[in-house]
């Protein structure tokens, strides 16, 4: 990882040895752009489609939440302290695909001497001890507690009127005029959480440091899966208490109803590109345990025709249901009115397209975003609001989700 920091374009994806039946690799490192695309939301999916088809190669990057504006009559007018491009992908010159103890190396215009010299440089850097740097961070809330409750009351009023049934409402924690070491901060965050979809992304002066537990969507051949998370419970150091918390989450009617509503939304999203009758729910409301929290996860699958373009599959299911609400368009409109920050990369997705058109993308949650030039650090958390939501419990759930990012920044 330290070796990769010399490049302007870096993506590191780490499964943290989670034994996931859908995983392709244990870890992937892509560096040094041969070509790249940076664009705003306007016609973003069409531009990505052209770029993916033209390169016909590995490409890595992110999709921001605000790509919603390219498909629907929606807007993103809230405050943006990060100023990331709405869409960014690059074609790496150097790619390392790691499975177990094996590393597959792919270089564009490969020269044997280049590979050997890079491996030697990596080995030399790996033997150096890391320098412990302390972040000098003072975290503030964009929405304070009383304002949060006021906004939640407005959200609940929309639900009571029947405008929506569920919406994901998010709030930002941020620090201005702050400098962090992105790599060391990522390492701290990853060590705290050890999630299956950890990501370190560098795009010039902009960084995504993610400890995401959630897969948005994956394509393998003609098979598609999406794995929305809805339902969260804290962990306990006491084994008996921890098992109790996990059991209570599995039986919680509110959490299950949240999850099932989003499963129905994902089924509908996948149906737009699916072969008729192929959309299935393979796993419903199963509770998985991570280092910080227990999570309720469902798996929805479909089959697509061979000629279906991979970008169209993403376009027709974006943004992911777990970060929007039901009905989707109404929920996104209300979210925009009530939230105080442009979501940007948060609740968007990082991932890759393979040369054969397969892809894998996570959901950018439990993540720290950093603009080094602006010295602006940000992380956001949220939760699903339904008619059964208790505002105080929703607020406490946000604080539980924020804990790992706070620890990584403040310690």
Describe this structure in words.
This protein has helices at 44-55, 68-71, 112-126, 145-161, 182-193, 239-251, 253-271, 310-315, 328-338, 391-410; strands spanning 9-14, 27-39, 59-63, 87-99, 102-107, 140-141, 166-175, 197-203, 206-212, 215-220, 223-226, 229-234, 280-289, 293-303, 325-326, 349-353, 359-362, 367-371, 376-385. The protein has one domain (3-128, 135-410): Anthranilate synthase, CATH 3.60.120.10. Helix content is 31%, strand content 32%. It has 411 residues and is of the alpha+beta class. The protein has a 19-stranded antiparallel beta sheet that branches. 46% of the residues are buried. β8 (197-203) and β9 (206-212) form a beta hairpin.
Pick out its properties.
single chain; 411 residues; alpha+beta; Anthranilate synthase; 19-stranded antiparallel beta sheet; 10 helices; globular
């Amino acid at each position: 990882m330290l070796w990769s920091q010399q490049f302007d374009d870096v993506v590191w994806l780490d499964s943290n040895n989670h034994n996931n039946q859908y995983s392709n690799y244990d870890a992937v490192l892509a560096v040094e752009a041969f070509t790249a695309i940076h664009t705003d939301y306007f016609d973003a999916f069409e531009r990505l489609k052209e770029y993916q088809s033209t390169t016909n190669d590995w490409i890595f990057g992110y999709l921001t939440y605000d790509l919603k504006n390219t498909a629907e009559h929606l807007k993103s007018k809230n405050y943006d302290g990060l100023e990331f491009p709405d869409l960014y992908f690059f074609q790496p010159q150097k790619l390392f695909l790691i499975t177990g103890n094996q590393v597959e190396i792919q270089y564009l215009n490969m020269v044997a001497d280049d590979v050997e010299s890079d491996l030697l440089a990596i080995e030399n850097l790996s033997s150096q001890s890391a320098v412990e740097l302390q972040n000098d961070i003072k975290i503030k809330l964009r929405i304070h507690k009383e304002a949060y409750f006021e906004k939640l009351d407005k959200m609940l009023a929309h639900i009571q009127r029947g405008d929506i049934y569920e919406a994901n409402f998010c709030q930002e924690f941020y620090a201005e005029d702050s400098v962090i070491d992105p790599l060391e901060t990522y390492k701290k965050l990853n060590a705290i959480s050890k999630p299956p979809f950890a990501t370190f992304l560098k795009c010039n002066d902009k960084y995504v440091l993610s400890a995401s537990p959630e897969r948005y969507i994956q394509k393998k051949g003609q098979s598609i899966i999406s794995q929305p998370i809805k339902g969260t419970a804290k962990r306990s150091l006491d084994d008996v208490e921890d098992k109790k918390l996990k059991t209570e989450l599995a039986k919680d009617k509110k959490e299950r109803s949240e999850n099932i509503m989003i499963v129905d939304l994902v089924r509908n999203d996948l149906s737009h590109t699916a072969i008729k009758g192929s959309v299935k729910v393979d796993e419903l409301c199963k509770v998985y345990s991570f280092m910080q929290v227990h999570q309720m996860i469902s798996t929805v699958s479909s089959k697509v025709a061979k000629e279906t373009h991979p970008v169209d599959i993403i376009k027709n299911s974006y943004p992911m249901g777990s970060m929007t609400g039901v009905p989707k368009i109404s929920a996104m409109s209300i979210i925009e009115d009530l939230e105080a920050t442009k979501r940007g990369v948060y609740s968007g997705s990082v991932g890759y397209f393979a040369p054969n058109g397969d892809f894998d993308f996570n959901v950018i949650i439990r993540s720290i975003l950093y603009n080094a030039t602006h010295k602006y650090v940000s992380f956001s958390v949220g939760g699903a609001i339904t008619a059964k939501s208790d505002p105080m419990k929703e607020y406490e759930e946000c604080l539980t989700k924020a804990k790992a990012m706070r620890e990584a920044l403040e310690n």
